[in-house]
Design a protein that fits this description.
heterodimer, A: two-stranded antiparallel ribbon, two-stranded antiparallel ribbon, globular, B: about 120 residues
């Protein structure tokens, strides 16, 4: 078998393998753990690396060559009405799995040193790989019920990981809060899936998108889907689980948790733009000369939620004293930015600045994951070195931990949208486009971004600068594996910030196009047209 | 009217479940609320696939006539299995919470100062 043939076979089967490799790895981990701890760590990193390689192979083909991949579990015959599950990968899916692959790889490298002193690590690694499998499944699947199953796999394993430090009461409480919220959200989604299935006798997203009529029942299903997915994504009225879950989980878990949150966000976009995509521009009501369309209504609603999300996130971040909770509230604000851009894109669907807003929003998804992820890793590193979480008891750490300080500075500049980091590139796109739609939105967005900078400058000052604290005299720099993990993300951040055009043209634009134009996604399955 | 009774039961189960989750302060009662919502959703799925006078969809040994739709039943089975896993996880977390705080009242949990 020559190399070309092998890579072609790998490419064809990669959508299934991306889920199967971490899943298989998860159940092999406890067995290998019995032999040797170091061997297990290497095995988990290799599994994550192999998954990452498959992801790169698949996304390169989808994003650069513009193919849409489908992978069929079950009957291969397209025409007959048979029971089967489809994976469908277009630009948006390919974009999301890149984020997932980076986060999972960084998390397992970081865990090597960070979790070293804990017991029960075989279970920890099993759960982290399960969570990765569920997350990739959510991002790849083209089937509504399959999506629900992967959603539940992800939320069960991530709940167990949030409560991993069971000796802390608050961690267990955060885990319980998370499982309650995510189960209720998932049940709403299942109810919506059942309503759609009862009407159209289909579970496949493309078939549903093709046959949807936008009846009264569809509207109920739409509301349930948006409510359930927004609950999982941490949009403001339903955000209260997020700071607890992000703040109490071990840092290496938090970074994968960001990925799962964004997988829910992705599903929200898939529902809005693809499944209900054909009814988006349909007029709902005529009042005088003004026609209310679904995309206008939905766009306004999403933009309003996003503005509240940003403001609440930033102002709550200002008053916290716990390092990880500050970052968690900043993460809420960042999700607000993504939502703001996508809402604005929905509002001005079809126009140039609408497309630009969509591009900014999609670009910001990956930037948010990297920036907030890096900050969480730094918070974890400080906890590892000093066993402190409260900012009030930190100070002068820059003397002992110079690399960590540099990584924090990079994360600080990126998250608050300063050049030359990646956050600047995407936030500029968002500001420009929403200024054309409504200047007030742009002003609020920029103001909150500045406040975010203020929040992190405060954190930087109180944790890293200031007088030497005698208690921290023998604090050392964190071990190499954590530095490598942080360095990896920091390099990607700087690379994205220096060459935003390259990223926007090659990765972000196919994803944004896939969102704005659902006909390719549908015709791949339904055929015809 | 008589055919709508399952749907009324579905709505009632989901509403009672949501009420319990939102207003009850005992963690066990919240978990019961979640299982009620889950039963409601499962009942809805089963009702969708049922036709009056139909038999179980076993193709090899069918007496003939109308069969009910098998897909919703498969979905319900999956959903029940997931529900059991979630329930077990929630109850085990409650055991841990009880060990830490000695109470199941949500108002008294997680109120201690930052360590």
């Amino acid at each position: 078998m020559n190399i070309e043939h092998l890579s072609q076979t790998l490419l064809t089967h990669s959508p299934a393998l991306i889920v199967a490799v971490p899943l298989l790895g998860a159940f092999l981990t406890p067995l290998i753990s019995r032999i040797n701890d170091k061997l297990r760590n290497v095995f988990v990193i290799l599994t994550a690396g192999l998954t990452g390689f498959l992801v790169l192979l698949l996304s390169y083909d989808v994003l650069i060559n513009g193919n849409i991949h489908t992978y069929i579990f079950g009957s291969q015959d397209i025409g007959s009405p048979v029971v089967r599950i489809l994976f469908e990968v277009d630009g948006m899916n390919a974009f999301m799995i890149i984020i997932g692959a980076i986060l999972v790889f960084v998390a397992v490298v970081y865990s090597w040193a960070f979790m070293k002193e804990n017991t029960g690590l075989d279970k920890y690694y099993t759960l982290i790989l399960l969570m990765a499998a569920g997350m990739f499944g959510m991002m790849l699947t083209g089937d509504m019920f399959n999506f629900f199953v992967f959603l539940e796999i992800t939320s069960i394993s991530s709940c167990a990981l949030i409560a991993f430090w069971t000796n802390k009461g608050k961690a267990v409480e955060a885990g319980f809060k998370y499982i309650v919220i995510s189960t209720i959200g998932a049940l709403f989604i299942l109810l919506a899936i059942a309503i759609l299935y009862g009407q159209y006798n289909a579970l496949n997203m493309a078939v549903l998108a093709d046959s949807i009529q936008y009846t009264f029942l569809d509207k109920i299903a739409f509301v349930l889907l948006i409510a359930g997915l927004a609950m999982k994504a941490g949009i403001v009225p339903m955000h209260m689980w997020l700071p607890d879950a992000y703040g109490r989980a071990p840092s290496s878990v938090t970074i994968v948790l960001i990925g799962t949150t964004q997988a829910s966000l992705y599903a929200l976009f898939r529902v809005c733009f693809t499944i209900y995509g054909n009814s988006l521009t349909a007029p709902l009501k005529q009042i005088g000369s003004v026609t209310i369309t679904l995309n206008g209504l939905l766009g306004t609603f999403i933009v309003m939620l996003a503005i509240i999300t940003i403001i609440v996130g930033v102002f709550m971040a200002l008053k916290q004293t716990n390092f990880k909770r500050i970052i968690a509230f900043a993460a809420i604000a960042e999700i607000g930015y993504i939502f703001l851009a996508v809402g604005a894109g929905l509002w001005a669907l079809g126009s140039d600045h609408g497309m630009m807003a969509l591009k900014g929003g999609v670009f910001h998804i990956i930037n948010d994951a990297l920036d907030v992820g890096l900050l969480f890793l730094v918070a974890g590193a400080i906890y590892y070195a000093t066993k402190e979480t409260s900012l009030n008891r930190m100070g002068g750490l820059a003397r002992n931990m110079k690399y960590t300080t540099i990584f924090f500075l990079i994360g600080l500049l990126a998250v608050s949208g300063m050049p030359p980091m990646n956050g600047f590139a995407s936030k500029l796109l968002i500001y420009e486009s929403i200024y054309l739609i409504n200047p007030i939105l742009a002003i609020v967005a920029i103001l909150c971004s500045i406040l975010l900078l203020a929040v992190f400058v405060k954190v930087f000052y109180s944790a890293f600068l200031g007088p030497k604290i005698p208690r921290f005299n023998d604090v050392k720099e964190v071990p190499k594996s954590m530095l490598i993990a942080m360095g990896l993300i920091a390099c990607v951040i700087i690379f994205f910030g220096l060459f935003p055009d390259l990223i926007v043209n090659n990765i972000v634009e196919p994803a944004a196009n896939a969102l704005a134009n659902n006909s390719n996604y549908i015709s791949q399955i339904v055929g015809g047209s | 009217m008589i055919y709508n009774i399952p749907f009324i039961a579905v709505a009632a189960l989901i509403m009672i479940g949501l009420y319990a989750v939102i207003f009850k302060r005992n963690l066990i009662k919240m978990v019961i609320g979640i299982t009620l919502i889950e039963s409601g959703v499962n009942l809805f799925l089963i009702t969708l696939g049922y036709r009056e006078g139909s038999t179980a969809p076993i193709y090899t040994n069918s007496p003939g006539g109308v069969m009910s739709l098998p897909v919703p039943q498969a979905l319900t089975l999956t959903s029940i299995v997931i529900g059991v896993a979630v329930l077990a996880l929630m109850l085990s977390l409650i055991i841990h919470i009880y060990r830490h705080y000695g109470t199941l009242d949500v108002r008294k949990i997680g109120r201690e100062d930052e360590e």
